[in-house]
Amino acid sequence: MRSADIRQTFLDFFAERGHQVVPSSPLVPENDPTLLFVNAGMVQFKETFLGHEKRDYHRAVSSQRCVRAGGKHNDLENVGYTARHHTFFEMLGNFSFGDYFKRDAIRYAWDLLTGPYGLSPERLWVTVYVDDDEAARIWLDEIGVDPARFSRIDGDDNFWSMGDTGPCGPCSEIFYDHGPEVPGGPPGTPEEDGDRYVEIWNLVFMQYDRQADGTMSELPHPSVDTGMGLERLAAVLQGNQSNYDIDLFRHLMEAAALAAGVDFDRDNSHLKVIADHIRSVAFLIVDGVLPSNEGRGYVLRRIIRRAIRHGFQLGTREPFFHRMVQPLVEEMGEAYPELAEQADRVARILEKEEQRFAETLDAGMKHLEEAFANLQDDQLDGGVIFRLYDTYGFPADLTADIARERGVGVDMAGFEQHMEAQRERARAAGQFGVDYHAGIHTDAETEFLGYDALEAEGTVVALFRG
Ligand code: ATP
Ligand code: MG
Ligand code: MG
Ligand code: MG
C-alpha cells in the first residue's frame, strides 16, 4: 500500500462510520502563542474538547501535519538515530467529542488494523494504563487480544493529562512487533528501547476532570483523541523496519544523494537527516514561518542549518538543500497543493539561507576540527561552543550534534555561562529589552525553555501526549 492509499483508507474508514473529514490545519497554531508548532491531530480541536467551542459534528477524522522540533515534544535530536522519529510527520486521528468512548474507539482501531490494513493480530501488542480495568476488559474479553501480547503500563506514557487540573485520562497504545530477529523487548520492559516493538497508535480516553487538590471526578462527556503516525504505519504495511525504507523516504534519500553528489546508501544517516529535514522546513515555510533569529523562525533556521551541515559532512561545498524541494513536491504535492504552488518560493528562501550559512560554515567547521584535535578531556569546552555560535552561527545543538557523532561530550553549563555573560554585556550596553520568551537569544536551550515555560504557565501544557 502506498502512503497516499494508507492515508485515504484511514479517512474513508472513519467517514463511513459517521466521522466528519476535517482537513489538516497549518503547522503554526492559530491564536496560540504558547505553542511552538502543531504537534498532534487534536490541537485544532483543543477548544472543542474543553467545551469552549461547539461544532456541528461529534466525530471527526483527520490527517494532520505535525512538527516535533521544539517545545514540549522535541524529536529533532532523534532524527538520524532512531528508525521511527521525524521532525515532520503526518498524524492520522479519529476524534469523539462526547460521543463514543472506549468500546468503540478500541473496536474501530482493531478492526481497521486487522481488516483494511491486513495486520495479523499475532504481530500486535496492546498496552493500557495500569488501573484501566475497563479498557483491559474490552481488549481481552470483547476483542479477544492474547493476554501474552498485552500489558498494563504505569506512568506518563499511558496517562494523558491536560495539566495539573482539567480533563485527563488513561491511554491505550498499539505496538507492532517486528519479530524475534529484531532486538528489543515489549513495552514496559527495560529492553523496550530496541526496534522490535514500534508504537504505532495511541488512543487517549479523556475521562476525568482533575481538581486542584488532586481528586478526580468523572467528566460528563468522556471523549476520545487518537493519533497514529502515517510513516510508521507505512513502514509496517510495506514490510520495513525503518520509516526511511518506505517509498517516500527512499525517493527523498535518493534525491538527497543526487543533490549532494554522493552514492545512495540506505544506511547513510546524513541522507536520512536531509530527507527528514526538507519536509519540516518546506512545510514550515509554506505555513508562513521564515528563517530568523527568534521564536519559530529561529527553530526553522536551526533545522535548515542542521541539514546543510549534514550535506557538508557528505562532502558537498555548494548549496544543495534547495534542490530537495522539487523531489518533495513530486512526493507530496498531490496531497498538499499549497506545497506545489509555493515550491519556487521555498527553494529561493532555502538557497538564500544556504548562501548565508556557507560563508561561515567552512571556517566554523575548521575551528571545530581544531578544537576536537586539541581536546584536553572527552569534553568540548563551553567557550568553543559559544564562539561557534557567536561567530559562525552554529546553534549550540548543532555543535552538540557533531560532538555526539564523535563520541565527545559538551560543556553546556560552560556555554550557558558565556551566554549569560554576553547577555549581561548587552544589558549593560542598554540593548536589552527583548522578550525573553521570544527566544531572541537564539540559543537552543533558552529557546526551548522559553516555550516550555510558557506552556507550563498556560493551559495547554499537557494537551499533548508524551
Ligand atoms: P514515541 O514514544 O515513539 O516517541 P509518542 O508516544 O511520543 O511516540 P504520541 O504523542 O503518542 O507519540 O503520538 C501519536 C503517534 O504519532 C505515535 O504513536 C506515533 O505513531 C506517531 N509519532 C509520534 N512522534 C513521532 C515522530 N517524531 N515521528 C513520526 N511519528 C511520530
Ligand atoms: Mg510513546
Ligand atoms: Mg504515545
Ligand atoms: Mg515521543
From TrEMBL:
GO terms for biological process: alanyl-tRNA aminoacylation; negative regulation of DNA-templated transcription. The keyword Nucleus does not apply. Its EC number is 6.1.1.7. Residues 1-466 form the Alanyl-transfer RNA synthetases family profile domain. One of its GO terms (cellular component) is cytosol. This is Alanine--tRNA ligase. Its cofactor is Zn(2+). Catalyzes the attachment of alanine to tRNA(Ala) in a two-step reaction: alanine is first activated by ATP to form Ala-AMP and then transferred to the acceptor end of tRNA(Ala). Also edits incorrectly charged Ser-tRNA(Ala) and Gly-tRNA(Ala) via its editing domain. It comes from Thiohalospira halophila DSM 15071. It is an enzyme of class 6 (ligase). Binds 1 zinc ion per subunit. Its main location: cytoplasm. One of its GO terms (molecular function) is zinc ion binding. Belongs to the class-II aminoacyl-tRNA synthetase family. It is found in: Cytoplasm. The keyword Coiled coil applies. It catalyses: tRNA(Ala) + L-alanine + ATP = L-alanyl-tRNA(Ala) + AMP + diphosphate. Keywords: Aminoacyl-tRNA synthetase, ATP-binding, Coiled coil, Cytoplasm, Ligase, Metal-binding, Nucleotide-binding, Protein biosynthesis, RNA-binding, tRNA-binding, Zinc. Consists of three domains; the N-terminal catalytic domain, the editing domain and the C-terminal C-Ala domain. The editing domain removes incorrectly charged amino acids, while the C-Ala domain, along with tRNA(Ala), serves as a bridge to cooperatively bring together the editing and aminoacylation centers thus stimulating deacylation of misacylated tRNAs.
